[in-house]
Specification:
This protein is an all-alpha fold. The protein has 1 helix and no strands. It has one helix spanning 3-53.
């Protein structure tokens, strides 16, 4: 074999290795993205379920009620 063919094979071997590395790296990143999106969806559903289970605020009832009953205090003469 001559030097030209060896040089071509060497370059092709490097390209194959680079392509393999790139493919594996993309598979890892894609798997991480899918895992993150699944976790986000799970947490979103849990939050929505928790919010739906809470009593609605502003339902017309006051959270603070002023004391009621009893006679009004008489004003002292000034």
């Amino acid at each position: 074999m001559n030097g030209v063919e060896d040089s071509f094979r060497s370059k092709r071997a490097k390209l194959d290795k680079t392509e393999t590395t790139t493919r594996i790296a993309r598979e890892i990143v894609d798997a991480e993205v899918a895992k993150r999106e699944a976790k986000t969806q799970r947490l979103r559903l849990a939050r929505l379920a928790r919010v739906a289970a809470e009593p609605a605020k502003g339902s017309g009832k006051n959270e603070y009620r002023a004391p009621s009953g009893g006679k009004p205090k008489a004003k002292s003469p000034a």
